[in-house]
Amino acid sequence: MYTIAFAKDPHAAYERWRTIYGSMVPVELAPGIPATLVLGYGTAKQILHDPGHFPADPRVWQPSVPAGCPVLPMMEWRPNALRSSGPDHARYRAVNVTAIDGVDLHVLHGVVEQIAVPLINEFCGGDGNTASMHRSIACADLLGQYIYPLVYQVLAYVLGFDDDINEQVGAGMTMMFDAAGEAGVGNAMLVSALDEHITRKYANPGEDITSHLISSGELTTEELVHQLVTLHGAGSEPLVHLISNTLLLMMTDERFAGDLISGSLSTRDALDEVLFTNPPLANFCITYPPQPILLESVWLPAHQPVVISMAGCNADPVIQPERVERFGNRSHLAWSVGPHQCPAQLLSCQIAMDAIDYLLDALPELELAVPIDDLAWRPGPFHRALQSLPAKFPAAPPLPM
């Protein structure tokens, strides 16, 4: 799952493995790091709703992993909701849900627009002179020039980051998701930046998620750091690639590219399609059974990772007839289910839809600039992430600011 070949076509791998192994597949997340990948939709739901037999705490497994393992920073124990079980999980989750619910979604619409407009103006190709733009075609890497900076600036607003903290956190998080040789460096950079951020917020609180977490009085500084690791981790790379994978679909699939003009399909329809077929966090929701357990006629070893393939489970042929029509159907596993279900779904979808709508309103004739088969996907066992998203479009005048 860590190879370039897997990153290029994971869907073919899921189907090949399903044919050979069924719904429980032995895999390696990194060289010498075994795990079981779950491809069965019903099996995944059973696991995710059973934290007693499938807890998310990796502390017994962790000492067996060699130092420098590239997937360890994404999987190691942290005192936060994602990597805890029982009362600790309940306490962390409650504090996080309250802080997330404190974000004013109406204000956030305006924040996304304020960030999107100047970014679009930097590459829209027009200077306001209609004659000079006639038949002029402009190009941009939407991932690097629009999606990444937009998401990280929006997250900085939501979490209360200063610019220098935002830059360090972003660099560290990207290294961790790539699960390459620098993942440990990225983890250290991330934790150090968040520790400094929390120190600043104690001195100067605001109306942001970090300040709400602090004001709860429920968390130590270490716990605050690791809530933010999860919040930023879930809200950065996955959100970036939810937006990029959705734009890719809308630029290349005639069901969307043709129907968007007539208005019969919405950005939300495209998001739902991507969350089924190409979710940005494709394989995650990791659990560690504390004793050997028999499931689907397979013995799962104690304390070995069990990884849910959200992408593979969504394509399980057993459930295919139930969701031929995906528009408005949100029974996918992209947000997980059960006690660890993502608490920021509404927030993430609003940011994604606003980011896409502002871009398409400004550049309605957006097209992919290269053949789709020439796009490169970043290797890594967890994400489904493009390296770039080159687009072309008729030059357009700058948007009013």
What does the secondary structure layout of this molecule look like, with pairings?
Layout (H helix, E strand, L loop, with lengths): L3 H5 L1 H12 L2 E7 L2 E6 L2 H8 L23 H4 L10 H16 L3 H19 L6 H4 L3 E5 H18 L3 H16 L4 H21 L5 H7 L5 H15 L1 H16 L1 H4 L1 H4 L4 H11 L5 E5 L5 E3 L2 E3 L5 E4 H5 L30 H18 L4 E2 L21 E5 L7
Parallel strand pairs: 2-7
Antiparallel strand pairs: 1-2, 3-9, 4-7, 5-6, 8-9
Helix pairs in contact: 5-11, 6-8, 6-18, 8-9, 8-13, 9-10, 10-12, 13-16, 13-18
Q: Any descriptors?
A:
9 strands, single chain, four-stranded mixed sheet, 401 residues, alpha+beta
Your description of this structure?
This protein is α+β, with helices and mostly antiparallel strands and 401 residues long. The protein has one domain: Cytochrome P450 (Cytochrome p450), CATH 1.10.630.10. It is 51% helix and 10% strand. The protein has 18 helices and 9 strands. It has a 4-stranded mixed β-sheet with strand order 1-2-7-4. A 3-stranded antiparallel β-sheet has the order 3-9-8. Strands 5-6 form a two-stranded antiparallel ribbon. A hairpin with a 2-residue loop joins strand 5 and strand 6 (298-300). Helix 6 (105-123) packs antiparallel against helix 8 (142-159) and helix 13 (237-252) packs across helix 16. It is globular and about 65 Å long. 44% of the residues are buried. The model has no long low-confidence stretch (mean pLDDT 91).
